[in-house]
Design a protein that fits this description.
Shape: globular
Structural class: alpha/beta
Strand content: 15-25%
CATH class of the largest domain: Alpha Beta
Radius of gyration: 21 Å
Mean pLDDT: 94
CATH architecture of the largest domain: 3-Layer(aba) Sandwich
Low-confidence stretches: none
């Protein structure tokens, strides 16, 4: 019998990267599954045969076990999503990947290698893995999970193997300092039998299919976890070099008129600096960036750090903040970063366009053949690709 047989689980926020994956695995493990979300999302494509309600406010039918996304906590009664995830992790030999930066890619790398070696993993990843067909897998082998510190939920996961990639202060409404983040991770790791601390590893020297020093470090962490899982290093190395990445991570969107368009989820200064450096590894011409800040709290706390990271590009246009789960803060807009960037690098071409489409058109007006236009942010800045490719000529 499947471990969740006989249960009816309703996911509030089922269209998100996380809960859509949980829903797929819960269904594979025997549960009847349905859910609600505020809007249609690409992640719902894999769940089209389920009952999914789309409406302005959260709703759930009676008689179902309700699991609530962090984004809708407090708006409807139900079980926090981390409780279900902890249950899923407890039901299978599991590897959990956590850290401020790189966890989606590293989780995907581990799942990809296990899949390519015929080890039939299950996986829950916060992004699309084109080579594996989505953000979830339901195999019978190891369960590979992306953990999340943003709401402290990673502490509830007790896997057999944990990977800690790095520590950084990225969620300013949850943590008051970097020390608090470190304490959370150490409390979590104390319960895990086998631990990979990626910051103690050297980056791989393999010829990867994904660019950037950050990805060479991600690969080192993935290979270390795979070794703990019993995968021969030579087999893992042979497979990992075929990994071509995750959606919205250095994702090539197209080319027109000699101008390339690349999209990346980078939304923290360290990630932005790493992404721009990785794009420059391609030996291209100028790098022009369209950046959409994510969260008012992050923008307020890190405006100066964002400016320093963006200063490594050749030109930058900043659009307004993508609010996600937050309410606006007085005086906090994307222009804070524009003003800081003008101070950090005087004379740099910098633009301010509150709307994504206007920013995209401005970036195109600056471009010339040989340039790479890069959209950066964890919101919906990726929709600019249509404008960039439609106008770049």
């Amino acid at each position: 019998m499947q471990p969740l047989s006989g249960r009816r689980i309703w996911f509030v926020g089922i269209g998100g990267a996380g809960l859509s994956a949980y829903a797929q695995l819960a269904r594979a493990w025997g549960a009847e599954v349905g859910g609600w979300d505020r809007v249609e999302t690409p992640y719902l494509r894999a769940l089209r045969d389920l009952e999914v309600r789309v409406s302005p406010e959260p709703e759930a039918p009676s008689g179902w076990e309700v699991v609530v996304s962090t984004a809708y906590a407090g708006r409807i009664e139900g079980r926090p999503r981390e409780e279900l995830l902890a249950e899923l992790v407890s039901l299978r030999r599991a590897i959990v990947v956590a850290g401020a930066h790189g966890k989606t890619t590293t989780t995907a790398m581990i799942a990809f290698v296990l899949d390519r070696l015929g080890l039939d993993p299950a996986f829950l990843v916060g992004g699309e893995i084109p080579q594996l067909g989505g953000n979830a897998g339901t195999g019978e082998g190891w369960l590979v999970v992306e953990g999340d510190e943003s709401d402290r939920s990673v502490a509830a996961l007790w896997p057999e193997i944990a990977v800690l990639l790095n520590v950084d202060l990225d969620h300013h409404t949850t943590f008051g300092s970097r020390v608090e983040v470190e304490e959370l991770f150490e409390q979590w790791l104390a319960h895990v039998p086998q631990v990979v601390r990626a910051e103690e590893l050297e980056p791989v020297t393999l010829q990867l299919a994904v660019a950037g020093e950050h990805n060479r470090r991600n690969a080192a962490a993935a290979l270390a976890a795979l070794a703990l899982a019993g995968v021969p290093p030579s087999d893992a190395e042979r497979a990992i070099v075929e990994f071509r990445g995750v959606g919205r991570r250095l994702e090539a969107k197209g080319e027109r008129g000699g101008v390339q368009v690349v999209d990346d989820y980078a939304h923290h200064p360290a990630e932005i600096a790493a992404t721009i450096a990785a794009v420059r590894e391609r030996g291209a011409g100028r790098v022009l960036v369209l950046f959409q800040p994510h969260l008012y709290s992050r923008t307020a706390h890190l405006a100066h750090e964002f400016a320093h990271a963006l200063a490594s590009a050749d030109a930058v246009c900043v659009v307004d903040v993508y609010p996600a789960r937050e309410e606006p803060l007085p005086g906090v807009t994307g222009k804070l970063i524009v003003d800081e960037l003008s101070r950090v690098r005087p004379g740099m071409r910098v633009g301010w366009a509150p709307e994504v489409e206007d920013g995209a058109r401005l970036l195109v007006s600056w471009s010339r053949p040989g340039d790479i236009l890069v959209t950066l942010g964890a919101g919906d800045v990726d929709r600019a690709a249509a404008v960039l490719l439609g106008a770049a000529a």
